[in-house]
UniProtKB/TrEMBL annotation:
Its cofactor is Fe cation. GO terms for molecular function: dioxygenase activity; metal ion binding. Keywords: Iron, Metal-binding, Oxidoreductase. It comes from the Eukaryota. This is Fe2OG dioxygenase domain-containing protein. Belongs to the iron/ascorbate-dependent oxidoreductase family. The keyword Oxidoreductase applies. InterPro entries: DIOX_N (IPR026992), IPNS-like_FE2OG_OXY (IPR044861), IPNS-like_sf (IPR027443), Oxoglu/Fe-dep_dioxygenase_dom (IPR005123). Residues 219-319 form the Fe2OG dioxygenase domain.
Length: 371
């Protein structure tokens, strides 16, 4: 059996009908997990990425840089500690666009059960998963592999269960039976944490604590329950290509496997798993309304041959129903010397533009909304 180098594999991807193979993969409704279960030993060509995109994907990140860790303990009872945390959140949001939080109030048992729920869904029989398979992202629950499968050159090595959890609450019977109850419990707790985080972010911008909440930044919640199967040739593909998030804020639960990297000072830095911690990152919409004070940073997930890796990305934005509310730079943050950098947009317009142009090359959709 042939094993290709990166350049050879990429060359071979140019000599076949890529769209036909993507369509066959999509119509199987079995996802990447289905390929692994079938016993493949080589990465199918639709997943082979360009060598430039894979550069340093498997290299260790610079040990001099570590994503900031923010301890949320005592921020309600101790005003001086809260001020310190606000300063830490401000610094991380302006420079990294990423930080991890500990003592966030969600029990470790809930986090572990949520990850187990993700594994139970993706590791169950293909027929059970197919009942939820859809590329209609106006629905509240959809299982798929690669939301942008037909837009990117190379597919990513992951499968996703997409669930809209708020503002319209789902009933347990609308969710997969193997994970529905824990998804409802986890979402409720993440929404509470989101309120706290948006208060801290508001204060970090010099605004009143309820400012971002009153703007309905914390109103909607979407869960992306991701499953990254063990990859036979991780040097040829990515779990998730470089991108920014299209929401206001993302809270990420990742397991012990790791693989998430953030681009910081033009270097890919590992976001190493910290037991019990949650990762928080600024989304494009928060960069827009903060008028570039906060940074929505590029990040990616490398493939691995240790897996599987499970994660839950909690996106704070209102996906459905569409809201007519316009979002632009917050007026308290603009002045004659610092005018608005972006035009107003609705969440749906921004997310639709983001999705339509999600090529996996790190190009920010924010550029299209600049004044």
């Amino acid at each position: 059996m042939e094993v290709f180098s990166r350049d050879e594999a990429h060359e071979k991807t140019q000599k076949y009908d890529r769209m036909r193979e993507k369509k066959a993969f999509d119509e199987s409704m079995a996802g990447v997990k289905g390929l692994v279960d079938a016993g493949i030993t080589e990465v199918p060509r639709i997943f082979v990425d360009h060598p430039e995109n894979l550069q340093s994907a498997l290299a260790s990140s610079n040990g001099h840089f570590h994503v900031p860790i923010v301890d949320l303990a005592d921020i309600v009872k101790d005003p001086s500690r809260r001020k310190e945390v606000v300063n830490e959140v401000r610094s991380a949001s302006k420079t990294w666009g990423f930080f991890q939080v500990v003592n966030h109030g969600i029990p470790t048992t809930v986090l572990e059960e949520m990850l187990d729920g993700v594994r139970r869904f993706h590791e169950q029989g293909a027929e059970e998963k197919r009942r939820f398979y859809s590329r209609d992202f106006t629905t509240s629950v959809a299982y798929h592999s690669n939301f942008n499968l037909y837009k990117t050159e190379a597919a990513n090595w992951r499968d996703t269960l997409f669930c809209v959890m708020a503002p319209n609450a789902l009933e347990a019977e609308e969710l997969p039976a193997v994970c529905g109850d824990i998804m409802l419990e986890f979402s409720k707790r993440v929404m509470n944490l989101g309120t706290t985080l948006f208060e801290l972010l508001s204060e970090a911008l010099g605004l009143k604590p309820n400012h971002l909440k009153d703007m309905e930044c914390a109103k909607g919640l979407v869960l992306l329950n991701q499953y990254y199967s063990k990859c036979p040739q991780p040097e040829l593909t990515l779990g998730t290509s470089r991108h920014t998030d299209s929401d206001f804020l993302t809270v990420l639960l990742q397991d012990h496997v790791g693989g998430l990297q953030v681009l910081y000072q033009n270097q890919w830095i590992d976001v190493s798993p910290v037991p019990g911690a949650l990762i928080v990152n600024i989304g494009d919409l928060l960069q827009l309304i903060s008028n570039d004070i906060f940074k929505s940073s590029e990040h990616r997930v490398v493939a691995n041959n240790m897996g599987p890796r499970a994660s839950v990305a909690c996106f704070f934005y209102t996906a459905t129903p569409p809201s007519p509310k316009l979002y632009g730079p917050i007026k308290e943050l603009i002045s004659e010397g610092d005018p608005p950098k972006y035009r107003e947009t609705t969440i749906m317009e921004y997310v639709s533009h983001f999705s339509a142009n999600a090529k996996g090359d790190g190009t920010s959709a924010l550029q299209q909304f600049k004044l």
